[in-house]
Design brief:
GO terms for molecular function: calcium ion binding. Keywords: Calcium, Membrane, Metal-binding, Repeat, Transmembrane, Transmembrane helix. It is a multi-pass membrane protein. Belongs to the MCTP family. The strands form four sheets. A four-stranded antiparallel sheet has the order 8-7-10-11, with no helix packed on it. The protein has a three-stranded antiparallel sheet with strand order 5-9-6, with no helix packed on it. A two-stranded antiparallel sheet has the order 1-2. It is mainly beta.
């Protein structure tokens, strides 16, 4: 019930320079659980923003009244990576030794925010739900830790997809929960939900 909402939410997006440079933003109004209405959209050209500083932007909504006030900072990304299984970042013994040294007890208080990192190998899924009429699905997998989100590529027409990807996340809160969700890609429509598992970091 507000025309001037304040969300004060912070999200971390992993921007890779070889990907799309535009950040797409949509504002929605929700009447009840079933009815939603698009209130406007806007875009931010990430590549055009100065790096290593916080940029305060007032973005007018396209074809609709109103604007969004946002703070966007583009900074070098540390500790986040996506790689193939054959080039696993922790596969090198010398790198393992460096990491052990970095997180040993005597170095615990050098950087309070650097709690550690989580490496997840997403191998495959088995016996997924068939989401299309041909008895197949186009599955991809999304991994979320706090406000960090990474995803695999889509394996088309397959109920037993193999992704064989390695994801590395920085850990900001040891009480966070890793959520792994499998979706079916559905063209321009929102993806269909195929299943989910939640893994508390403290259980690892």
């Amino acid at each position: 019930k507000s025309a001037n909402p304040q969300w004060r939410e912070q999200f971390d997006f992993h921007y890779f320079s070889d990907r799309k440079d535009m950040l797409d933003i949509e504002v929605w109004r929700k009447d009840n659980k079933k009815h939603e209405e698009l209130l406007g959209t806007c875009q931010v050209d990430i590549a055009a923003l100065p790096t290593k500083q916080t940029n305060c932007l007032e973005l007018p909504l396209e074809k609709h009244p109103g604007s969004l006030l946002m703070l966007i900072a583009v900074a070098p990304c540390t500790g986040v990576s996506i790689s193939d299984l054959c080039v696993c970042p922790l596969g090198d013994p010398s790198e393992r030794q460096q990491i052990s040294q970095r997180y040993c007890i005597k170095n615990s208080f050098q950087d309070i925010k650097d709690i550690g990192f989580l490496q997840v190998k997403v191998l495959k899924a088995v016996d997924l739900l068939a989401a299309d009429f041909a008895g197949k699905s186009d599955p991809f997998c999304v991994l979320e830790l706090g406000n960090d989100s990474l995803q695999t590529h889509t394996v088309y027409k397959n109920l037993n997809p193999e992704w064989n990807k390695v994801f590395t996340f920085p850990i900001k809160d040891i009480h966070d929960v890793l959520e792994v969700t499998v979706f079916d890609e559905d063209g321009d429509k929102p993806p269909d939900f195929l299943g989910k598992v939640a893994i508390p970091l403290l259980s690892v």
